[in-house]
Amino acid sequence: MIVKPYSIRPIVGPSQLLGRRNLMSITKFDTKKFVQSLQLKGGFSEQQAETAVNIVNKAINDGIYSITRNLVTKETLSSTAYQQKVDFAKLKGELQTMDKSEFSNLKKEQENLRTDLTNLKNRLKEDITKSQAGVRLDLNLEKGRIREESSIHELKIEDTYTRIDEEIANMQMQIKSVKTQVMQWLIGVSSGTFALMLAFVRFFG
Fold first, then answer.
1. Which end of the chain has fewer CB atoms at under 10 Å, N or C?
2. Per-residue pLDDT tens digits for 11-43
3. Which long-range contacts (CB under 8 A, 24 or more apart) does 141-148 make?
4. What angle do CA 177, 182, 187 make, to 5 degrees?
């Protein structure tokens, strides 16, 4: 709201409450006595004294007239004071209205800001919740993938152990078979050697 400027009228001082009539009465003095005083004490002639008195009287009257032109009456002063009171009351009312309007606007802006902050807070909570849910889902998927890979690795390890056991069993069977063949060969060689020795003993015995 734009407040219109008010022109504050100057307040007339108490000295200006004097009327022109009272001020003009100040200049009424005994010119004849003043002329005689100039003649007796100043050595003026009658014509010089009258001329000097006329000049002084005119100067005083002109000065007082110049002052009285700027004086106002009591009624004018009262009217001016009343108008100033009205202007100040109007200005005060507009300032109060402006303050109330600005306070209302400020309160409304504060409520809007509070609403925006609340909405922003809720959006942040939703975003954080979504992010946490996404992270949990990714973690669960990664855990599942790790379990699956771990199961596959365990199966491969078990298969490897099984193959190793089978190879060991095969090697043990082969070793036993070789042992049996060696034993049979040794027995056969021993029997042939013994039979040969018996034949040699009989031949040369």
1. C
2. 334 444 344 444 444 445 677 787 788 888 778
3. none
4. 125
